[in-house]
Amino acid sequence: MKCEPPLTERRTGRRGQCLLTAGETGPAWRVVEGIVRLDLPVPFGEEPGEEHFVGIAWGGDLIGAEALMFGRYGYTATAVTPVVLEGWSQVAAKEPAALLYARFERRMGEVLRLRAGKAPERIARLFALAQEAGAEPPRLRLRDIAAITGLRIETVSRTLKAMEAGGLS
After folding, report:
1. Distance from C-alpha of 149 to C-alpha of 138, rounded to nearest angstrom
2. What is the distance between the alpha carbons of residues 93 and 69, in angstroms, rounded to a whole number?
3. What's the rounded mean pLDDT across residues 20-45?
């Protein structure tokens, strides 16, 4: 998937919009608002055009920082919800890079927890994290919920209906 032209100092993105493309060059970005999904391109030999979910980022998290070190983005970043991004440089940063990386590492631990346990628990944890990020969970797409939680779309759909019927959503 090819993203739109390079980002400017501050940018908004709509749900489903590709923000950064793996392999492209560009600056690092801090997520101001919203949730961003991070995917790795498939390894050589697998179905082209497919990507593998690897993480999420939201308010305060840094995305694209690997381009500062390696010259290219390692992930494709897509807006799960409407997002606001601002350009980030270590020189102008209000927070030290180590703090941002530590926050992101903690987030990856939370993502791993979203992929373990029973379907209702995974989805409930995702909704809690989305609310913490200021997003409205019912507005998340089924395919994003499925990719983030490691569940099939059909399982997510059935589970959401059961949660709604039980008053848990």
Report:
1. 15
2. 17
3. 86
